[in-house]
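Methods — Computational structure assignment.
A single polypeptide chain was analysed. Its primary sequence is given first, followed by the predicted tertiary structure written as structure tokens.
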Amino acid sequence: MAAENDIVLIHFENQPLAFARIEEILPDKKKDWYHVRLLVLQLPLQTVTWILKDLYINGQEFTMNGKKMRLEKIMAPRIESPPSKDITNKGAANSPIDSPKGTIISLSDRKPGTKTTPK
């Protein structure tokens, strides 16, 4: 079940419409119904509160004013970790981090309006 702080994709008439973050889920007086407050992630930002069954929060299609709606919980894509390097960095000469041409520029030392050119 989608929970508070989860990101969901709102589908309208079988088309993705907008992303939203679930801000709050509070029980309604009717069993298995909830007040779901969503922060719609589009400009301008707005919050809406929908009264939904737990099945609808879990992704089952429902209708709103006769229009098909669905919430789809979004999972962040997995980030593949880079292959581990041994301490000697053998074979890593092509790595931009280890390149002798690389220059480190400290952004905190820059003064506004100055340009930094690599040495």
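Note: The beta strands are 7-12, 15-27, 33-40, 46-53, 62-64, 67-73.
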